[in-house]
Amino acid sequence: MPYHIICLSKYFLSNSEQYYIIPIDGSCPSCKINLLWGEIIQNKYTNQPITITTYPNESDDDIIL
Question: Fewer CB under 10 Å: which end of the chain, C or N?
Answer without folding.
Answer: N
